[in-house]
């Protein structure tokens, strides 16, 4: 018997609802055409939650997320809420979800679809065939370290404080995810840190090395400074297989990696917690991009990152590899046919809206499964 997949959908702000709508159509397609029942609940996060409930994530929504098999999120934030105090900003809603669901491993795969080789700002020969996985630590580091805040000094100056902290176990658990992934891919891990200037970076390097020597001696490990990784990503991205790094470096390096794929609108992500004894795990899936206020509400956004995030959900939460493959093939087929949203537009191609990109992917899914 196929069990019901309980998915909580939090569309959020800006282009969030627009890109999530297209992913919902794909869920509906799988439900109808592949006979896999989905129970989709919807809730608010970010600015939408502030407007509806006065907080970026209501406790009731947090409880729904705890109960769901998986969460699909659009994006949060926007100019309307930028002046709010820190603890009330839309972004806090997303950070609370990550922290309370203990989603410490954020997988951000940068793969270049063959038809998009020319869409990157980098030369085709640099990005062709790229397939790298960034594993970003997501619940620790400078995003959450204490002390933090803005304080007033006696001389009238203000001081902003954030603290970078990592413990051995935080480093090991995300390291294990990276090494396990590498075993299923190219067996190579690059760990990015600033061990030359930060004690937490020194600890990161030592503990990742220890983990490799004790449990993953079959996997090749190299350590690099994060600034050098930023440079190498532009010079020779194909040299990387899995990159494991902390919360802040992972945030920055993944936006950089997105540009290999053509656009931020192409990069999906999965945020995972520990695997439970029953095989399940808490998980949240979201595009790497934000709410894109500059194009919000205009039906211009690229929904592919969100649709590929759904495909990651099918793989990681539901073991539905056939359907995940189908979605990725449909995306590739649509791109090959020259259908493009503005962000991945190229001469001679047809520029389409968010909705038409969704239509095209559904049409391709129909064709593939006919
Ligand atoms: P952004 O990712 O929203 O936009 C950066 C640029 O990429 C913009 O030019 C935008 O138009 C473009 N872009 C992004 N996604 C696109 C898509 N799907 N299709 C086409 N073009 C796309 O980053 P930003 O402008 O720095 O941040 C805007 C807001 O989003 C801020 O409030 C920020 O905090 C928030 N944000 C949220 C998330 C998230 O929810 N996970 C991630 C990043 C930023
Ligand atoms: C991301 C975003 C978030 C982050 C913000 C919105 C909290 O940039 O998911 O990459 O910094 O992690
Ligand atoms: Mn980011």
TrEMBL record:
Keywords of the record: Amino-acid biosynthesis, Branched-chain amino acid biosynthesis, Cytoplasm, Leucine biosynthesis, Magnesium, Manganese, Metal-binding, NAD, Oxidoreductase
Gene3D superfamilies: Isopropylmalate Dehydrogenase (3.40.718.10)
PROSITE patterns linked to this entry: IDH_IMDH
Organism domain of life: Bacteria
GO molecular function, one term: 3-isopropylmalate dehydrogenase activity
Site-annotated residues for Important for catalysis: 143, 194
KW Ubl conjugation (keyword) present: no
Cofactor note (record): Binds 1 Mg(2+) or Mn(2+) ion per subunit.
Main location, first listed in the record: cytoplasm
Binding-site positions, Mg(2+): 227, 251, 255
One Gene Ontology CC term in the entry: cytosol
EC numbers, comma separated: 1.1.1.85
InterPro entries: IsoCit/isopropylmalate_DH_CS, IsoPropMal-DH-like_dom, Isopropylmalate_DH
GO BP: any one term: L-leucine biosynthetic process
Catalytic activity: (2R,3S)-3-isopropylmalate + NAD(+) = 4-methyl-2-oxopentanoate + CO2 + NADH
Cofactor(s) required, per the database record: Mn(2+); Mg(2+)
The Isopropylmalate dehydrogenase-like domain, residue ranges: 6-361
Pathway: Amino-acid biosynthesis; L-leucine biosynthesis; L-leucine from 3-methyl-2-oxobutanoate: step 3/4
Location in or out of the cell: Cytoplasm
Role description: Catalyzes the oxidation of 3-carboxy-2-hydroxy-4-methylpentanoate (3-isopropylmalate) to 3-carboxy-4-methyl-2-oxopentanoate. The product decarboxylates to 4-methyl-2 oxopentanoate.
Record-stated family: Belongs to the isocitrate and isopropylmalate dehydrogenases family. LeuB type 1 subfamily.
Full protein name: 3-isopropylmalate dehydrogenase
Organism: Roseiterribacter gracilis
Gene name of the record: leuB
């Amino acid at each position: 018997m196929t069990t019901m997949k309980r998915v909580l959908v939090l569309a959020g702000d800006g282009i969030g609802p627009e890109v999530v709508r297209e992913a919902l159509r794909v869920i509906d397609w799988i439900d109808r055409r592949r006979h896999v029942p989905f129970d989709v609940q919807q809730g608010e996060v970010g600015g939408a939650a502030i407007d509806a409930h006065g907080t970026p994530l209501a406790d009731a929504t947090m409880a729904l997320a705890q109960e769901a098999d998986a969460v699909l999120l659009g994006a949060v934030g926007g100019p309307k809420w930028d002046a709010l105090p820190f603890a009330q900003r839309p972004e806090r809603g997303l950070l609370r979800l990550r922290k309370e669901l203990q989603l410490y491993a954020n997988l951000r795969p940068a793969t270049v679809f063959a038809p998009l080789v020319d869409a990157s700002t980098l030369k085709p020969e640099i990005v062709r065939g790229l397939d790298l996985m960034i594993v970003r630590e997501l619940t620790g580091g400078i995003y959450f370290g204490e002390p933090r805040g803005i304080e007033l000094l006696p001389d009238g100056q203000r001081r902003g404080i954030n603290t970078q902290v990592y413990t051995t176990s935080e480093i090991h658990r995300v390291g294990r995810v990276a090494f396990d992934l590498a075993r299923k891919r190219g067996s190579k891990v690059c760990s990015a840190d600033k061990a030359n200037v930060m004690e937490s970076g020194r600890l990161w390097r030592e503990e990742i090395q220890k983990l490799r020597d004790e449990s993953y001696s079959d996997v090749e490990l190299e350590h690099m400074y994060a600034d050098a990784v930023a440079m190498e990503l532009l010079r020779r991205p194909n040299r990387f297989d899995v990159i494991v790094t902390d919360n802040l470096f992972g945030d920055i390096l993944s936006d950089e990696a997105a540009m290999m794929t053509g656009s931020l609108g192409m990069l999906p992500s999965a945020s995972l917690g520990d695997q439970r004894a029953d095989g399940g795990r808490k998980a949240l899936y979201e595009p790497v991009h934000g709410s894109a206020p500059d194009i919000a509400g205009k039906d211009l956004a690229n929904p592919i990152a969100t649709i590929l995030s759904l495909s990651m959900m099918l793989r990681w939460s539901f073991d539905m590899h056939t359907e995940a493959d189908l979605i990725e093939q449909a995306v590739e087929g649509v791109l090959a046919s020259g259908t493009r949203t503005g962000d991945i537009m190229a001469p001679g191609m047809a520029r389409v809206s968010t909705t038409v990109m969704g239509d095209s992917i559904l049409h391709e899914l129909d064709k593939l499964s006919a």
